[in-house]
Records
---
Amino acid sequence: MVFKFIFGGLYVKKNYFITLLIFLLLIFLTSTIILHPEVAFKGSIRGLNMWWGIVFPSLLPFFILSELLICFGIVQFIGVFLEPVMRPLFRVPGVGAFVWAMGMASGFPSGAKLSAKLYKDGELTKLEAERLNSFTNSSNPLFIFVAISVGFFHNPKVGLVLALSHYLSNAIVGLIMRFYGSNQPNYSRKERIHSNRFKYAFKVMHEKRLSERRPIGKILGDAIASSVQTLLMIGGFIIVFSVLNMLLIEIGFISNVGKIIAFCFSNLKVNHNLSTPFLSGLFEITLGSKLVSELGNSTLLQQVALTSFILGFGGFSIQAQVASIISEVKLSMKPYLIGRLLQSGIAPILAIIFWKPLYLNQLTSNVTNNTLPVIKIFTEKQLNLESLISTGSFITLISLYIYVIILIYKLYIKKLSS
């Protein structure tokens, strides 16, 4: 009873401390915004532009398409074929290959959304969904090649180093995280040996399609509504963390803490001026990558390695987005955070390894045909962040217009049925 009283009292004090800490933090942020309204406004505009012009139009088609592919059983069809590959390597079902591919193609936080969706539909166990979520959230190639390489560094050739180190480190994290929860039951269903795998895959897809009772119009409308709602939530996180980052820079928090990081960087023979972009990148990858690219007194290799770290870590903004998505189905954040720590350490090392063969050798080579087609296209068209935002804004506006129409129609139908 005595021990219970003592530890119970400590638990109550801990709860009081957390409540006090939250209170002080919110008061501090509110007062900071009041004292620096122009900085908060600038941060809001910056976050809104990034969401409006890049994040929304780039993620929306993939979100809608993934919902449709799951509803009509095509994901299950793919899963039957890739089961023999994904099980031995990553200890997840074959449908994990779909999540991984969509996560790479569409970018953060698609992997979390699809992992949560498949877990909710019973295609994954809780352990498999957490394991899959740890390595399927990555930056999309468009952001790496266009926004960072061309828009920030004005050097398309660094895109290949960043992309290869980013995606390969993701795969290595997946191989490491296969051991996560190794002492717990793993399989959602046992792999069977089929004489005709294509026939069995088609049967699984057909059964999934028949189990879907909603008409096609209803499925499409629900897919659009669900995708837009998720993206609105993502937009809120982007704006909040953009404002927070700008305020921390304004009040000197980033620069003061950066002095400690700068001391550590100096001991590691790294340019101490990279400390401020490093801290900004911990909060938000776009601003961090931009600040890294603007440092003229640092070697390009150090800038690329730090950018690779920032992409691997993901930033607190994206981590908060992932936490919000997976909390709806009660998945743990622990494996995802472990994955981010692993990737942020592996990716810079790979960038340094790939630097000579993929960048320096390309510079010394006189053969222009060796340039990757994707990089040639970006260079010829002179794509940049501003042109991407202007095009994406139009797509976002049309998509939101369609979403409002669907929402009004759903409310009208609900009113008639009540």
Note: The longest helix spans residues 37-71.
---
Amino acid sequence: MTTTTQLDLTADLLTLTRQVCDIPSVSGDETALADAVVAALGAYPHLEVLRDGDTVVARTHLGRPSRVVIAGHLDTVPVADNLPTRLEGEGADAVLWGRGTVDMLGGVAVQLALAAALDAPTRDVTWVFYDHEEVDASLNGLGRVSRNHPDWLTADFAVLCEPTDAGLEGGCNGTLRAEVRVPGVAAHSARAWTGVNAIHGAAPVLARLAAYEPASVEVDGLVYREGLNAVLISGGIATNVVPDSCVVTVNYRFAPSRSVDEAAAHVRALFDGFEVVVTDAAAGARPGLDDPAAAEFAAAVLGVTGGAPAPKYGWTDVARFSALGIPAVNFGPGDPLLAHKDDERLPVGQLALCHDALRAWLTA
């Protein structure tokens, strides 16, 4: 018989964040944390709690004129001897170290605290805690819910609590992976002149990448930095055989003003003369900050945190909301540059800052 680890949603934010992070939830192993979230939220009568696999949805039904989704993923990348969490320093200047503190269980803790405490928000709220964000897109819990229960995600606006250093980040870049395939002719390496070395033939591919200058593209007032890089290279079958094939895998991060088809065409044009096979792609999301709901959110949140909206350079699930016709932004505690790193760590003060900003918006 298994025992569900308990989460105390009335605890202070630091304590709750440590409770959430200290339940290991590497992608594919989110069940224990999902069980704990269901048990904790189920104690609050103002919430309807639903579940699909290891994705948990909790929502209010107050008859408000608008509904918002606030979402965060429960999974992390593999633990690297960085759990349980440890605390350094005191008070708001303290820093919490450990897997998931940044990406993105600090944001999840903020969600849980607010979901429990706000029994009469001025907007109806759908809180989403989903699985399998850090792995193949086909497994993503948010995508699964959008297919199985699209009504669960009905909303006028969405906030994804991805780490943004407590700033507001609009939209996201798209991402595309492609294989640039270089042919050759196999031969014995002692008689190399009888073959064609495919690995040598990949030199122009690498030269084009080295010379490539990625663009900075302004979209709806935010400037998105693109990037195109070789991320894998493979070729050869033995140390005494001239390789007859070589594959350079490239990753293109493109501004949300481009479609997937336009991004693929750009990559194919760059590697003209080579076979290019797109293996995976996901469209980005425009900032959408001109939407009235997004503008209202920005005004309320930045009134607490200060600063100005910035672009999200990586791909996030705001793109899924955008595809559903729901304007969405990224907002959460933690420096995204520390996501997935072994020294992942979160300034404790950002927990309260994000909590207070979201509370101000939801109770305005």
Note: The mean pLDDT is 96.
---
Amino acid sequence: MDLSPSDLRLLVAVEHTGSFTAAGREVGLSQSAVSHAVREAERRVGAVLFERGRRGANPTPAGERALVHARQILRQLELLRTEARDAAAGSVTGTVRIAAFRTAAAHLLPPALDRLTTRFPGLKPQVLVVPELGRGAAGEVADGRADLAIATLDDHAELPGLHHGELLTEPYLLVHPAGHPRPRTLPLLDWPENCSSYTRTWWRTQDWLPPRRLDVADDSVVLSMVAQGIGMAILPRLTVIGPPPGVELVDLGPERPTRRLVHVTTSAARHSLAVRELIRELRASVN
């Protein structure tokens, strides 16, 4: 027998709460009923989905994969109901879940969401800010936690099982304290998300960059430290929109590094009217 939607909701609740007891409180079942239901789900799937122990219930590798599909299926059921009602009423309502890295969330999303919710007041965006490290914002879509992501993507990278479309390619700029007599003697400020392979390749060919480097938390901290005269940096254009006083921006010329921004969805989510309209507004924001 296939798992039912209630089975899937229970599995997601166990993952979310980390224990059978807490999951039971969330879905209105006793701990023993949850334990029995999970065992039955595991029997139907043919794999152990959770490790039980003193620290609660944690997904096994099989459970992690099953939970990805559970979240995606539950989301599709939610969209089925919402979009069918919307089609009958001629409206767009419900939620649209968005994952984005910090500067995209700060500069690209606000105007797009303002226009989107003005056109469709019944639509409720939910924004999750995700560091662009590892699987980043695109990983939230792949795992069923977001309908659309704004992510960075190297020119030759692929996103298996996902669909992406171009938003913009932004240049990097040299940023240094304004008025400093020898800014290139300052330490180079960097942050973990600045990990584009294209940028790294460019850096290796620039013998003028200072050998001293300071790693800080994120690009906003980098910009603040530049304004304080602590160092210089190579920053993407989105980061330096509305820079603080005391910062000078320098174009790096035609061979400058760039960062490619894309929108990412699943095959199913890209057919959602809310997602399609959001992509339309995002493209309008960058054009």
Note: The mean pLDDT is 92.
---
Amino acid sequence: MTRFWVGGYGVDMEGPADGIGVLAVDEGYGPTTLAYRGAVAAAPSPSWLAQHPTLDVVYAALEGSGEVAAFARTGENALRPLGRPVAAGQYVCHLAVAPDGRFLVASCYGDGRVVRIGLDAAGRLVPDARDKAAELRAALFGQGSDEANESGDGDGAADPMAAADPYASDPNRLDPNGDPRVSHAHAAAFLPDGRIATTDLGYDLVRIWRPAASGLTLDHEVVLPRGSGPRHMVVHPSGHLHVVTEYSCELFTLAADREGRWGLVSGTPVSAIVTPGHDYPAELSRSRDGETLYAGVRGSNTIAALRVRGSGERVEPLALADAGVDWPRHHLVHHGALLVAGQRSNEISVLELDDRTGAPGRVRHRTPAPAPTHLLLAR
């Protein structure tokens, strides 16, 4: 039986979820038998989940409390806490685990922090013992980052400081929602060369980091158009990095030059129909072969499919389909179907994918689930 762990919003984030849930698909019957089986691990608003690369351990971003928690799988539908949660930052919303399983990177929407948390041989979270007040070391640099790197202790860790707004000289210091521009870290992705990319939705930045023994060192930044709001990313098999933007509803492609410095190579709207200010793209995923990208669009509640061209450097809109849910917060591709988590409609839908083009089609199935925000295929 195929299973998915389901993250969701609980009472501290104004949702009905009471922990990590499980979604099951009967073997041999396909996604149309999808059913939510309830919570299997109590946790406050586990809005994002991540799997250890080799161990049966799942990590949860507890968004409301600003913590990260680890859970060990003890049965087909059972998870137990693995140690105590550790503090990360305000509204921690995304986790990415290093391919070697030695640490994870937590992105915090509320205060813009990007945090490295060590993992031991059993997959337990290892707080930074040198920073008892926060339990771990933040690694977010901005203005004065060179000074921060020089004043570190030699292992890549440095004291947290405010990120720098690349458009600080603009007299209109508001974001597209009319709020003051502040740093909002939103996602991280491990790049083929071992470095790490993170998005700053508030400051329109993609940051490139170098991991060190117990910290992250800023390598450089890529500035995207003002007000675009980079949110989530996928790494293409070619090595290109695709970034979806929440505010401008675009898909940007980044690539590294011969010196390893990343830059913007192309961009396109996720769809000719999607409207900035009304629509807010959320998750970005890709097909196994990387030929098709899928962006969930909140507002119009659609899934935008895009075709990757050339060697990964160009992307163009392909199709737009009804997501079948309200506020598609997250989605994933699984065996010729697209599973979509509808945060506001408290349900998960299954869309068929065209075998030839990869375009999303009709809604094949729906199942109730409490404020789902993330879907993770169980090991």
Note: The two ends are 11 Å apart (CA to CA).
